[in-house]
Amino acid sequence: MKIYFQKLIPDAVIPTRATRQSAGFDLSLCGQQPVTIQPGETVMIHTGVAVVLPEGTAGMVYPRSGLASKHGLALANCVGVIDSDYRGELMVPLYNHSGEAYTVSPGERVAQMVVTPVLLPEVEEIPAGKQLPESERGTGGFGSTGKTAGGENAK
């Protein structure tokens, strides 16, 4: 499998994996100027790159763990989804959860994109009032399976 990156801006950094076994391709701030994110603020970070992903895959964008644990930065949308037919610039919405401003330097790695297979099912509507197929769980949700493995609802 191959993926392709294209620089949309000359000083963009082509995403790479830190090691051969790293799952994520690191996405970096593009440009010549640092970007400061104030407490409680969301800033769109430009990467300056586009990607071509194989059909049947998606790029899942996650925060880098060091930015979150050391500086309180996370993706504003929790996880970004890059569809295989998207050809625009990869952007990273970073939110500052901390009480201090954080400055992202040009070239700094801010997120990681993991390429994953996706299912592309056809959709068929079940008419209102028609019984849905039975399942072990039924309509139970939000804690209905208990707190512990083999807990109060285990069979």
From TrEMBL:
Positions annotated to bind substrate: R64, S65, G66, N77, V81, I82, D83
Region called Disordered, residue ranges: 126-155
Low complexity bias: start-end ranges: 145-155
CDD domains linked: trimeric_dUTPase
NCBIfam families: dut (TIGR00576), PRK00601.1 (NF001862)
Family indicated by similarity: Belongs to the dUTPase family.
Domain spans labelled dUTPase-like: 12-146
Function: This enzyme is involved in nucleotide metabolism: it produces dUMP, the immediate precursor of thymidine nucleotides and it decreases the intracellular concentration of dUTP so that uracil cannot be incorporated into DNA.
Required co-factors: Mg(2+)
UniProt protein name: Deoxyuridine 5'-triphosphate nucleotidohydrolase
Species the sequence originates in: Candidatus Faecivivens stercoripullorum
InterPro entries: dUTPase (IPR008181), dUTPase-like (IPR029054), dUTPase-like_sf (IPR036157), dUTPase_trimeric (IPR033704)
